[in-house]
From TrEMBL:
Predominant location: membrane
Compartments it resides in: Cell membrane
Database matches in InterPro entries: Ac/AlaTfrase_AlgI/DltB (IPR024194), AlgI (IPR028362), MB_O-acyltransferase (IPR051085), MBOAT_fam (IPR004299)
Transmembrane segments: 21-41, 53-78, 99-118, 138-157, 333-362, 382-399, 420-441, 461-480
One Pfam family from the record: MBOAT
Origin superkingdom: Bacteria
Xref: PANTHER family: ACYLTRANSFERASE (PTHR13285), TEICHOIC ACID D-ALANYLTRANSFERASE (PTHR13285:SF23)
GO molecular function: acyltransferase activity
The protein, known as: Alginate biosynthesis protein
Annotated Gene Ontology cellular component terms: plasma membrane
Family of this protein: Belongs to the membrane-bound acyltransferase family.
Keywords, ordered alphabetically: Acyltransferase, Cell membrane, Membrane, Transferase, Transmembrane, Transmembrane helix
Any single GO BP term: alginic acid biosynthetic process
Length: 493
């Protein structure tokens, strides 16, 4: 009887309390998902409405575990966005409907602007007025940037006729609250997910399910085995760069470049994989970005969901490349500054956005002024890759640093104190860390065709092989990551 009471108490505590570490790769979520998934499979055989309501209920619970009481923002934004979008489409075409569109977008943006940028704005006024006012730090709801952008994309797509205005409230709620996407996306368009929600799932797509399992395995390896391990040294460097040698700082920058890729693409793999297990196919969010030969290509491969969102809902509406070269450069630059601010209310993210904006403008300028005439051989490709990777890594310094002093100290140490004598010391002190970073970069360099070949071989393998691979990876995650669990970097955005 005592055991039952303890179990009931523990279950109640779990269901009623927020978990600041809640994410797709934590053990509590995995156990919860197994219970959820077992019931989901059974419900899928019956009425689709019950299945949708069940998934929505679990998504709300997922949002509660991540955000606590702030989870109420999600259903409020969902319902208001759906009703206001329908109301907007009843307005007369022309100026009135455009005003309606602006009002709906503003209503969708207001929670994000309030929770994410209020303190940043007040700090700017504080600096300008030289006052002693110090605002209290506000809690940022996890994932608010992602589901806000999904809501805006739906409203704009309905307004422009890209997507029909006939989505029912239950389908739209499923779309905007879908739990794999809540913490860190990827930002998914209505045209990708909603038709799948509205279509009855009579048969299980085994290939999609096995692809989902493959992505979950890849995501666990990237996040729990690679990113969390190398983050330990990266944190030392960026917390106190002056305590490390110039070469040590350089390795910290290289390590963070690997960490942020493995962390975010690992989460995207997990999110897309979990959705695939449930029968929903989402688009890839990363395509080996560090293979890019220029910055434009990098943004076609990195965080594809966000880069295409800014392309379709900011860059093109600003005029895109339709109004001459100078306007194209300006639009690219502005889009990257907004992308920087989207990542966080900090001048460091603005600097990161400016650096990428300058890089894109320089590349577009060179393309328009003779860059295409340079021979496309192994030497130019190697040099292009080295310049691109170095520039992206330089920008990551400002992205990761807490302030400008940290960033400039780190860069100065790399430039002025790096010497060959430190290489041997570093190798002796951090051999495993360096091996993990270099192996990760080497694995990242494989051809996309080879990666998809491996994926297809996994999908075609027997269930016993799949089970063994998954069990080995899961055991490695449990054994190796229990003392180094790091929150997903993109949960703060």
């Amino acid at each position: 009887m005592a055991n039952i009471t303890q179990l009931t108490t523990a279950l109640f505590d779990f269901l009623s309390t927020q978990d600041k570490n809640w994410s797709l790769c934590t053990f509590p979520f995995m156990v919860s998902f197994l219970v959820f998934f077992a019931i989901y499979i059974g419900l899928n055989r019956y009425r689709q409405t019950w299945t949708k309501a069940y998934v929505i209920a679990f998504s709300i619970f997922f949002a509660f575990k991540a955000n606590g009481i702030l989870m109420w923002l999600l259903p409020i934004i969902t319902i208001s966005s759906w009703y206001l979008t329908r109301f907007m489409m009843r307005l007369k075409r022309g100026k009135i409907r455009k005003i309606g569109l602006a009002v709906v977008i503003l209503s969708e943006l207001l929670p994000l602007l309030y929770y994410k940028y209020t303190n940043f704005t007040l700090e700017i006024f504080h600096e300008l007025l030289r006052s002693n006012f110090s605002p209290e730090k506000m809690l940022l709801p996890v994932g608010i940037s992602f589901f806000t952008f999904q809501a805006i994309s739906y409203t704009v797509d309905v307004y422009k006729g890209r997507y029909p205005k006939t989505a029912e409230l239950i389908d739209y709620t499923f779309y905007l609250t879908f739990f794999p996407l809540l913490i860190a996306g990827p930002i998914t368009r209505a045209e990708v997910l909603l038709p799948q929600v509205q279509t009855p799932k009579d048969n299980v797509n085994e290939s999609l399910v096995y692809k989902g399992l493959w992505l979950i395995i890849c995501g666990l390896i990237k996040k729990a085995l690679i990113a969390d391990y190398i983050a330990q040294y990266n944190n030392i460097v960026f917390d106190a760069p002056a305590t490390q040698s110039g070469f040590g700082n350089l390795m910290g920058v290289l390590g963070f470049s690997v960490q942020i890729y493995c962390d975010f693409s690992g989460y995207s793999d997990l999110a897309i994989g979990v959705a695939a297990l449930m029968g929903y196919e989402l688009k890839d969010n990363f395509r080996f970005p560090y293979q890019s030969l220029n910055l434009t290509e990098f943004w076609h491969r990195w965080h594809i969901a966000l880069s295409t969102w800014f392309r379709d809902y900011l860059y093109i509406p600003l005029g895109g490349n339709r109004k001459g070269a100078l306007r194209t450069y300006l639009n690219s630059f502005l889009a990257m500054i907004v992308a920087g601010l989207w990542h966080g209310a900090s001048w460091m993210f603005v600097v990161w956005g400016i650096l990428h904006g300058i890089g894109l403008v320089v590349h577009k300028f060179c393309i328009n002024n003779g860059l295409r005439e340079i021979p496309n051989n192994a030497y130019t490709k190697t040099l292009s890759w080295l310049i691109t990777f170095s520039y992206v890594s330089l920008a990551w310094i400002f992205f990761r640093s807490s302030d400008m002093t940290t960033a400039t100290t780190l860069i100065n140490n790399i430039i002025h104190t790096t010497n060959l004598a430190d290489v041997r010391i570093f190798l002796m002190e951090y051999p495993l860390w360096l091996a993990v970073v270099l192996i990760s970069l080497e694995l990242h360099s494989i051809r996309e065709a080879d990666y998809y070949w491996l994926q297809s071989k996994f999908i075609q393998s027997s269930w016993l092989v799949k089970l063994c691979i998954f069990a080995v990876v899961l055991q490695l995650v449990i054994n190796l990551s229990q003392h180094s669990i790091q929150p997903f970097i993109y949960t703060q955005f």
